[in-house]
Specification:
Blueprint (H helix, E strand, L loop, with lengths): L4 H30 L3 H22 L4 H4 L1 H28 L1
Helix pairs in contact: 1-2, 2-4
Length: about 100
Amino acid sequence: MKIPVDLMGLVLLLFLMLTIYLIIIIVFLYARRKYKGGLIETVINLIICTVGFLFVADLSLFLIYSYGVRIGFTVHVVFKIIAMVFLSIGGIRFFEK
C-alpha cells in the first residue's frame, strides 16, 4: 500500500515512538535481570507492562490503513486506557504497602 506524502511525516514519527518504546522495554528488561526480587523488581515490571501497552496502542494506529480510522483509533484509545489503569492500580498497591 502506498502512503500519501502528507502522511509520511506522521508515519515516520510513529516509527520513532515505537523504537523509543522498544528501547525503554529492552533497558528495563536488562535492569530486571540485574535487580531481582523486592520492590525494585516490582516497579520495573510495572514500567515494562505500562510501556508495553503504550507500544501496542501506538502500533494499533497502523490498523487505520486496513480497517479505517474509527476502528484503529478505538483500539488505540482502549490500549492507552488499559495502560493508564494498569499504572494507577500498580501505584495504589505501592501506597497500600
